[in-house]
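Example with several molecule types.
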Amino acid sequence: MARIKVVINADIGKGKINRNIYGQFAEHLGRCIYEGIWVGEDSPIGNTDGMRNDVLAALKNLNIPVLRWPGGCFADEYHWKDGIGPKENRKRMVNTHWGGVVENNHFGTHEFFRLCELLDAEPYICGNVGSGTVQEMSEWVEYMTFDGESPMAGWRQENGREEPWKLKYFGVGNENWGCGGNMRPEYYADLYRRYQTYVRNYGDNRIYRIAGGANIDDYRWTEVLMREAGHLMDGLSLHYYTIPGSWEEKRHALGFDEAGWFETMKKSYYMDELITRHSGIMDRYDPDKRVGLIIDEWGTWFLVEPGSNPGFLYQQNTVRDALVAALHLHIFHNHNDRVQMTNIAQMVNVLQAMILTEGPRMVLTPTYHVFEMFKVHQDAELLDFNACCGTYSLDGESLPQVSVSASRDASGSIHITMCNIDPNHEAVIQVDIRGTELPAVSSGVILAGQHMEDHNDFQQPDKVKPESFDGFRVDGSALTVTLPPMSVALIKL
Ligand code: AHR
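Resulting structure tokens for the full complex:
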């Protein structure tokens, strides 16, 4: 087997890996908010102010930097005033977009900020352009952030919150080319200009305004938005899901063959091309890269689990998802000059979730474990390395077998993450680390599968979990790593 060679230049920094790349997304969709996070103060499930303690503790461990809410498509149907005040008076509503279920609005603005406080995450709120008014959006911002006497600040105080909250990230609509109003980019660009005018900075609160961005390879959307409104935004979003099969004919999260595995990896690598091309357009209007590319929805999208509500998007999560997460995070690191935030979809019980729940029980998915392992990269300096890495082939098509990223944290430790997407062959990687003395002590962690469909469920919650890893050797400035098939590893030097 050919050795894969990598050179890491530890003395050449490539910029900070923005911790917001590790952001999450929680929508009023299926069992993400209700059941997954919110169970209510009276629930027999242990909770803090209505939010389940087991899920909170697991999420806290991920150091989530930023959390997007309330949607998604839900955002453009959400009327925030229905979700404040005494719970018994809150209007019940139909979640028309997701399953047509009735929600009691017990999780609203105050509960969201409390969740962010408990997780120590920055709130990222997505406002309603599709079916909401400018006044409604403007009053929401006033309600949350106005310090002093004003109608909305007074109302907030009546509802128990004296001080304004700090709100940094605000999205002006979601998928306005689709569920957020079926608009043309020219029309949305004008609406964006108008709505964002009234997303005001009160006191010392400074809002980072995010415009609704393109779907996948809709480069015209990015072009028009940057041309017409680039100077009025701080960030522009992009949505891309990894969907084996097609949008119309999705595949199962379990019960796939190697062709399904390969296609999923190939579609994950496609994220790199998408970022490169959207960034290229942004570069023409914003060569200094002031405007961030905000990939506020990404991840796998499979068929729902048999027997579950089709509108709830509940899917299992295998070692395949772990590889998808690792590949994406590495790609985001490499584009840290333009990508300022990403939010995987979604945090609990929906799409490529961190956590699955069933009544009082909870399991951590393989994707959770990748986020846990990779959190060492948050805000660390990305290190220069040469592109690599081997070949994984199937039916005449090839992909890079191994993906690598390295960073140096504030304490000087170097962390290298690697993944081997080949489900059949190990990878032997020789890493030449230049520009630093390697320490005497090193350690490793690995997440690996025996079978492509390995996953955690309520019968076997720990089938896929990080183990200590000793499949590497440090010799002078050379690190030799043997990565098993379908694995993700973290080495600390
Ligand atoms: O994450 C699920 C849905 O996917 C979101 O609501 C929407 O924005 C996207 O189409």
